[in-house]
Amino acid sequence: MRVCARKWSISEASATSEHLYLDRRSLLRSLSLGGVLAGSINSFVRGAIADEDVGPTSKYYPAPRNARYVITREITDEGIASKYNNFFEFGSHKSIWKLARKMPVEPWTVHIDGMVHKEMVLDFDRLLSKISLEERLYRHRCVEAWSMIVPWSGFPLADLVRLCDPLGSAKYIRMETFRDAEFAPGHRQSWYPWPYVEGLTLEEATNELAFIATGIYGKKMPGQHGAPLRLVVPWKYGFKSIKSIVRISFTDRRPTSFWEQVQGSEYGFWANVNPDVPHPRWSQATERLLGSGERIPTQIFNGYGEYVAHLYKGMDGESLFV
Length: 322
Fold this sequence. Notes:
This protein is an alpha+beta fold. It contains 7 helices and 14 strands. The chain has a single domain, classed as Sulfite Oxidase, Chain A, domain 2, CATH 3.90.420.
């Protein structure tokens, strides 16, 4: 079937070398998530150190690319993207990768609760053994007005929502990251409302773009990018893409996110990329592309309006950013 190029698309041949995929396992795992078994509740413990090249889950990478999602620019160099990160659990500076990449992530469990038919605990390794991963090229736009092009590996968030089996009365999904003040120095800063929390409407969560990433650059996810699994919602500013998820709750009340609690006048729930709505302290009209230093115009919804603009029809009373 022919894939029609979008206005922000080019041939994927310019993005990543084909050789990354020649060793992919010939037999992909079933798309069904229904066979995932809940295990006993495990705390966030010191396990094997996360590394993109070793560990039991490394065998799932690289994943085959989904040709529906292509980008107009070259992928950001891995060396740059892996050393320029926000992860406030490890500090407010961009060099947090030195500590975050050592984050223990094996074993890892995710608690599913709230308005669901049955609460459960998902074991991450078991989850990966039951699904087929894919790679997607996505634009990533930070609220700080820098951007990058990233090849994420993972699976649609909609598949995980179906597995969780929420009640019909649930309207939102609330996600929470780990809390470990012994390992993550940011958690010792009492002025922040830990743990990090983010949320989406169920309509946003089941949109085809919403993605749970478990890998990047053809390898398992390193700690600084949010190992072992993080949210990726490319039409929103990067702070919405919560890292290292340990709990997913379904609710009929809109969650208050981490940055809303910290500074609600600057960071809102929707956080959709909008060049016409400036941050109170800087313009969002342009962005700095990592690796080149080039400033380029920012696109509404980060260029993904054809997928998501319909989600926000009739919301004239609310700002798409704040």
